[in-house]
Amino acid sequence: MMFAPAPFLLKDASVSQVMIQVCVALIPGIAAYASLVGPAILVQLVIATFAALLAEAVMLKVRGKPLVLFLTDGSAIVTAWLIALTFPPLAPWWLVATGTVFAIVVAKHLYGGLGQNPFNPAMVAFAVCIVAFPALMSQWPSVGLKLGLIDQMNIILGWTPRVDALSGATPLDAMKTALKLGDSSFDISTLLANQDIYGNFAGRGWEWVAAGYLLGGLWLWQRKLITWHVPVAFIGSMATISGALWLYNPAQFASPLFHLLSGGAMLGAFFIATDPVSGCTTPRGKLIFGAGAGLLAYIIRVFGGYPDGVAFAVLLMNLSAPVIDLLSQPPIFGMKDKA
Amino acid sequence: MLMNLFKFKGGVKPPSNKLQSNHLPIAQAPLPARLVVPLHQSIGGTPRPIVAAGDHVLKGQMIGEADGWISAAVHAPTSGTVIEVAMHVRPHPSGLDSLCVVIEPDGKDEWIARTPIDHKAAAPADVFHHLQQCGIVGLGGAGFPAHGKLTPSKGVAMDELIINGAECEPFITCDDLLMRERADEVVRGIAVFRDLLQPKKVLIGIEDNKPEAIAAMQVAVDAQKEPFSVVAVPTLYPAGGAKQLIRVLTGKEVPGSMRSTADMGVQVFNVGTAYSAWRAIAHGEPLISRILTITGNVHAPRNYEVLIGTPMDELLALAQPHPDTDGIVMGGPMMGFLVPDVHAPVVKTTNCLIAHDDRLFPPKAPEMPCIRCGACARACPHELQPFELYWFSRAKNFGKTQEYNIFDCIECGCCSYVCPSRIPLVQYFRFAKSEIWAREREKNAADQAKARFEFKQLREEREKAEKAEKLAKAAAAQAAKKAAEAAAAAASPASEGEAPASAVAEAAPAPVAVDAEKAAKMATIQAAMERAKAQREAAQPKNTDALKAAQQKEIDEIEARRQAAHLSEPPPVAPASEKTE
To answer: Which of B235, B259, B284 is the last residue in one of the domains?
Structure first.
């Protein structure tokens, strides 16, 4: 007698479908990024994907899990892509590979594999690498440095020496460095007007990358793969604190728009803080999680020592997620007036 | 009918698959060669068989009588001969056998005398009895005896009577066809329920994918000038769940922990129940047949009126199943189950048979780990957190599953339906629930044993105390009597006996009171010894009655020898005292 429990009808859904859609949603942002920094980012995506699948395969083998089933679930690729998109595009290949392998081996599989990791693996990789290799993790190509695929690959693979001209800073970092010089005559409006790394609102070209992530994120929301709670809370809290400080002193604090379109804000709001495995799951919990991540990201990027704060903010909120979930259980059907 | 509808959270929209079976009118299934009628077909007790092998039964004759209030009679679906009353497989996922009456039809289909009842003239209790005797149970799925739901809760006004024609499960169309073809009798049945419950409003909820049924019901309601509202509700599984339909039509949310929806002034009946109740009231017809959808991997899906007890495989043959059919699903594809034996009979709650094959219901992809995506929580109509329940069930952390309200789960299958990791969530929840039930049963049994033991101890102590008290009283009385005698003796020589008598009387009770306990114990032992002695004495003559002189002499000699050898010591006293009381 065969045994098959109800329901017999199942929606056409799978983990790989979820992951593939997340990858698809990243494409507009990747396209804008590639047009900003050149094909290097695509090279990094390939390196990260390759490293992730290799590490995943080895770990699955070690853990005695079905290889094909889990290799094709796409979760490793999502992690790989998020790493490639958060690391400097001209970082040496081994840096991206190390980060990715660390994410898959330690942050994912040593914690129990798919669905079990308490921390977002990509953000663990970012945090580990920025602590271990702070210089390399802060070398961003200067805007206007137009190199072809071959030149960029040579730099990534270490066949060309990493010249100083390659190592610029992100718009966020540049602003922080400039403000920290302590020149009182110096303010943000002149900075935005005079430095050519800035565009209309934030970093030149970076605005478009952020817009690309926003577009992909909205598509994920429309596909019901994410809910509105985390992005809205993330963006809302970052806009609120940056807006308040900006109103208080516009010369020293950048506008909310600058912050939302800089660094990992949009990627974090729609793709990283929304990671269901390491994030909150209840509607109220998601609001708290998103708001906390947005707030911490702002504080770390403005007052902390790192160029951006999204990774640490998300990791800190990952830590709190189980407790937030526990305390934010929604009332169930029929029990709303009792709660 | 325009009215303000409410929404319930969650729900899914599986492909309805209803068009295959709803385009043909209801057909009459042929008389099978053998009917196997299970006695237990409803929630509640198991009816007692009142026929035996060899009996001739008429169509509609009672073969199992209700064994309590929540129980409903069972009847012979046709005339014929009872072959046996024996254990046969029942249509249940367990595949266990249950007591069934097996009838060989004689082909005459000869009715027993039927007695209708005028429900308006009769007392409600008589109407309930009539419905129970006619075996009317809920035909929507659970099979709760209908009469048990026809009394309002104490102190709660009955606001709404809801008639469930939603039929939200895919594939099933038996209620749809019933409403299309027999709307008039359904509405009359609803009127009976209305007369008994006296609700303020009657709402008939039908999913909006059944326009013909909605129209037919509206026509019937208008024709009978009843103030019932026929309401088209949005098609969203599980809108036909009682609590979901109540929510949609009234906005009320009946908590899962509330046993009866009547406690919130609302009661729900399935359209099929209303129909069969009307047949019972107006025609005296017991529930011996029902409408059943036969669909799935078959050539000719259709609805049939079938006799209860007809083997499922015979019915499936009517619809000409395709050769690759590998099983029968009873019920819908969301909550139904593969019957463990295709020969299992149709029962009162069988609303649909689906021929199963891998093309229609592809084998499930391998189960992946939960990624906490929350799709299940968004789909849950009871707003539970299925993935949390899943973690706790898996970890056998049953206390936590209860904290997360596992018993509010109605097992509708929405969570399993949407899960991208293909986790059979409902299975985990059934497992957790049955484990909790089993543990509770064990705990109850242990508690009962403990209570029994403690009560026994308590009783023994109380008896001991009572005995001691009695003996103490006796001892005191004895002492008082002795004291009084002594006083009298002392007083008799003296002319004025007041003072010494009172002195003795004062002196005597004091030691008695102090030594009461000791005296009681002593008295107990004494009494027991005396009793034992008396018994021995009473018993001994029996054994030595009517002895001949020679025998007596022999015995005396033996006794003497024994005495010499110290063998005839008296038996120990203490155990005897325990036993004699």
So the answer is: B284
